[in-house]
């Protein structure tokens, strides 16, 4: 397995492309938006610069990594000759079903089709293809080049052989894969999202301010980042989509998204990526804020 296609050049897609390319894989990075590709490639370059500055990699490693990535705006051109697809497009069920229908038609018959979805059913995605045994969840964490975990989600029909191949490949990426079953939110988000939602509810109820809530969880629970800051970093639209998938999937009101989260997404306040969420990331302060998140 040498040739990888990554669908979506956003927050996760550019990190996934970066990680595969740095480990020597040929990566086709595909997005419907040229602007998203340009932003994604600029982010990869900036993140590699940071690694060079820290002497984790050399300038030659940076050039080789960038050289391993080819970009496409056409799905057809980008997947004709690949062994594995990792889909990291927007978290939307209808969009993912359409992409997987197309991938099934366009990819070589033996290619494995993985999705980085945070919560959508792998089994449901697999069902629109003619190869459900080769569809699997490969859930990377954000920021991908830094975070060790990959949650590997077996759909109802995913075979042992495909699961083992993806577990092994994740180890080749110097990640630690963990296998889980296919239920809404899997493990990571089933536990994380109710905590983020409760933090937003705490703010909505006027119990404390943004800084106070984050300070309590950072200093009191030794979390590296406060929950509201983490929600901004993940993307408030992504958090809302995941909560809705769990709410619909379990039919349990404990997953109902807080009205404040719903309102903020409707108002376009999506967190770091839109410049404003619970915190302000306006251009002049964005780099400084993001740097602090990683500090
Ligand atoms: N943000 C996180 O922290 C995080 C963590 C783990 C998993 N995920 C999952 O990763 C996926 C991507 O999330 P993100 O945060 O990177 O989103 P994002 O909004 O940053 O990027 C999504 C990208 O997909 C592109 N896209 C949309 N439709 C497309 C299509 N038909 N073909 C190709 N590209 C298309 C968009 O142009 C955009 O660049 C989602 O499924 C999300 O649930 C996100």
Number of helices: 13
Question: Which of globular, elongated, flat, extended, rod-shaped describes the shape?
Answer: globular
Extended strand count = 8
Give helix % range.
40-55%
Reported for the largest beta sheet, the result is: 8 strands, mixed
Radius of gyration: 19 Å
Distance between the termini: 35 Å
**Would you list the SSEs in sequence order as H and E?**
EHEHHEHEHEHEEHEHHHHHH
Bound molecules: nicotinamide-adenine-dinucleotide
Mean pLDDT over the full residue set: 95
Strand content: 5-15%
Structural class: alpha/beta
Major β-sheet strand ordering: 3-2-1-4-5-6-7-8
As residue ranges, the low-confidence spans are none
Describe this structure in words.
By secondary structure, the chain is of the alpha/beta class. It is 51% helix and 14% strand. It is built from 13 helices and eight strands. It has helices at 11-22, 34-53, 59-67, 75-79, 93-106, 122-126, 160-172, 188-204, 210-221, 227-234, 236-250, 259-266, 283-294; strands spanning 3-7, 26-30, 69-72, 84-87, 112-115, 135-140, 149-154, 176-181. The chain has an eight-stranded mixed β-sheet with strand order 3-2-1-4-5-6-7-8, sandwiched between helices. The mean pLDDT is 95. Bound molecules: nicotinamide-adenine-dinucleotide. Nicotinamide-adenine-dinucleotide binds at residues 7-13, 30-33, 36, 88-91, 95, 99, 116-118, 139, 142, 234-235, 238. Keywords: Oxidoreductase. One of its GO terms (molecular function) is (3S)-3-hydroxyacyl-CoA dehydrogenase (NAD+) activity. It comes from Pseudofulvibacter geojedonensis.
